[in-house]
Sequence to fold (271 residues):
Amino acid sequence: MLSCKDVSNKVAYMEELTFLNRMQLKVHFLMCKHCLNYKKQLELIEKKIESYVNNRYYSNLSKYKNFERGLKNYFQ
Amino acid sequence: MKSLNPIESKVFVQKLINKDNGASEKIIEAYTGRLIKISFSLGFSDEDSLDLVQSTWLSFFESLPKFKFKSHIKTFLFGIFYNKVKELKREKIKTNKHDPVDSIFNNRFDDKGGWKRLIANPETFSEALETLNFIDMCLKELPLTQKTVFCLKIIEKESSKAICETLKISSSNLGVHLFRAKNKLRECIEIQMEV
Fold:
């Protein structure tokens, strides 16, 4: 049986988990609200940072596109 | 199976090396915005980000004739970018055997590995993320490698294999960096919520 600490260790990098590990996590999440909340918090952070970066980029898009055009001309 | 991006094909890279018309334009168009976004997520200002991207492209085109086709061209480009980031930060990259976040993380659990304190529910956490603007500050506090691993994985959606090749780290090291980055960000946000 995985402890909450084991679960939160695994949640941060789920990509390389075995099928058994994934099942163990699923079972744990059914029983432990805190670990489920922890997992959801990490997902929220990922989404928030992604949208922060995209907003920052797209709010100044014309500036960055001009920069890109300058690079293209230079390296032609 | 994931299909190969035309820009990643050998034919395209050969065109780039031969300075074929349009090839440089295509690759600049494909990756400039992405490099700028990664620079932002690494905590660089606008000016620094553009300088960083420009010097990355300069080195890229200079070293292109030496490209050996052992990796994808994107990995080659991102490897150069990462070296530029390291240069800019003048940070000595050493593998930290112990990171302060490990102690903070360990203190969250009792002897049996259970949570000592309740974890805030996702709704409260999400509201705090929306209303308080401390993401940038928390990102800046991450060490360079952790930040880069996190950004390549989350923003760039890069495969673990490519990240390991770009940063020259092992897969288990990648897991440790990702774990530490996510935990540091979470702890930082939680601390800010409490302030």
Summary: Residues 18 and 24 of chain A are 10 Å apart (CA to CA).
